Each structure stands twice: as C-alpha cells, then as structure tokens.
Amino acid sequence: MSTATGTIDPKEAEHFGRMAADWWDPKGSSAMLHKLNPVRLAYIRDRIDQHWGLDECDLRPLKARKAADVGCGAGLLAEPLARLGAEVTGVDAAPENIAAARAHALGQGLAIDYRVGSVEALEPGVYDLVTSLEVVEHVSDPRGFIDGLARALRPGGLLILSTPNRTARSRLMLILVGEGTGRIPRGTHDWEKFLSPEELIALLEDAGLALEDCHGLAWGPARGFHLSDDKSLDYLVTAKKLP
C-alpha cells in the first residue's frame, strides 16, 4: 500500500509548484494547458452524458455528484467541474498550486475542497467522477497511482485520464519542439515515463476498471488540438469501476 505521499515525485511537485503564480495566465507557463482545456472539457462532458444518460443541454449535469481532480494544479479543470454542479475535491502535490487554486476559486465564488497531496488524500469509494489529466506520466509509481484513483471511485463511477503516448511523435512535438522552443517549460516531460494506451489500459483493468473509451488528442496547424483516432501524440481514456 502506498504511503501518504507514496506516488508523489518530489522533483515533479517542485517543478509544477514554480508555475503556480501564472497558472491562470493563458499566455504564461501553463499556456499549453489553456489550449488543451476546451477539448478536454468537451470530451469529459460527452463521456459523463453517455455514461449517466444525461441531458446534453443541462447546464449542471453533475449536480448531486462528487468529483475529484487529482493533479489539479491551480484549478483549471476543478473550477469547470464545480460550475457543472459537482461537489469538487482538488488534489495537488505542490502547496504553491493549492494556494493559487484556493485564491482563484475564492475570487470566482466557487466552493472547492482543495488538498495538498496525491491520490492518497482522497476518501475511498465516495466519488462518482475522478479526473487526472496529464498527471500519470509525472508520478513515481503509475500502478499505485491508478490503484488509488480506482479506490477513490464508488462502484459504477467514472475515471477519465489523459496522458502523452510514448512515441517518436510525442518526443518530437512535446520535448524537442515544445520544450526546445519554450512553448512548454523545459524539464516538464520525461519521455521514458510516458505510457502507451496498451500499458495504461492494462493498469486500469488490473485495478478493477472496465474501459469505456479511448480517443486520441491530436494537434494540427489548421485545427489546433482536437479529438482524433490518432493517438500518437496524446490520448484520453474513460473507464468505469466495476461493482
């Protein structure tokens, strides 16, 4: 079993903590996340609608449901989840990020339970939805991390992840080009820690989850980031906790 900080990589936490001050600046060090967020939110909305048979026109489809965002940064996803009606818990390993998240949520009039830590900070078996986007590639123990995410879900609950694929394309686009040109802060990625869809899906299944969807998150000069069948750069997965 993991300890209280068993899946946290301290160097990763320190790296992202340095980005806290301008996390909400769409032109700052988290600019790439701001570009990704609309596509990720659209995917999440579609998956929750499909999973629970929700009205796609409902402005608060997550009302009366509990959601957790693990590796929440300064709240770029946690806040939209709260606006969709969820009772949200946000967890991040960097205290600086949690401080920035709390301050921003207060300014937006949003009540979000922010906690310093990792997946171990979540109560077991209580969350209807758990999200963790672009996080699993930064933890010290991916298997323990996925097990923890699954443990936090209630039976029938939904887990949504995104992560880069370990391919030549991801090395070129994210590290050589992205970090090399300063579009992504240098040192953000370790290509060797990227997981292929097959590897991640195996971890999900080992944790007692059933795959519901796997979609590529691609980029092109005309469309920017968009959902695609091409998983060579990045991808999203949705899995359900079995009874």
What report would you give on this structure?
The protein is of the alpha/beta class and 243 residues long. It has a single domain, classed as Vaccinia Virus protein VP39 (Rossmann fold, 3-Layer(aba) Sandwich), CATH 3.40.50.150. It is built from 7 helices and 8 strands; from the N terminus they run H-H-E-H-E-H-E-E-H-E-H-H-E-E-E. Strands 3-2-1-4-5-8-6-7 form an 8-stranded mixed sheet. Strand 1, helix 3 (78-83) and strand 2 form a beta-alpha-beta unit. The longest helix has 22 residues, at 31-52. The chain is globular. The mean pLDDT is 92.
Strand content: 15-25%
What is the helix fraction of residues, given as a range? 25-40%
Poorly predicted segments: none
Q: Give the distance, in angstroms, between the N- and C-terminal Cα atoms.
A: 22 Å
Form type: globular
CATH topology: Rossmann fold
CATH superfamily: Vaccinia Virus protein VP39
Please give the CATH class.
Alpha Beta
Which SSEs are present, and which pair or pack?
Elements lengths: L9 H8 L13 H22 L13 E5 L7 H6 L3 E6 L2 H14 L4 E4 L10 E7 L8 H11 E12 L3 H12 L17 H10 L2 E12 L3 E5 L5 E8 L2
Parallel strand pairs: 1-2, 1-4, 2-3, 4-5
Antiparallel strand pairs: 5-8, 6-7, 6-8
Descriptive key words:
243 residues, Rossmann fold, 24% strand, globular
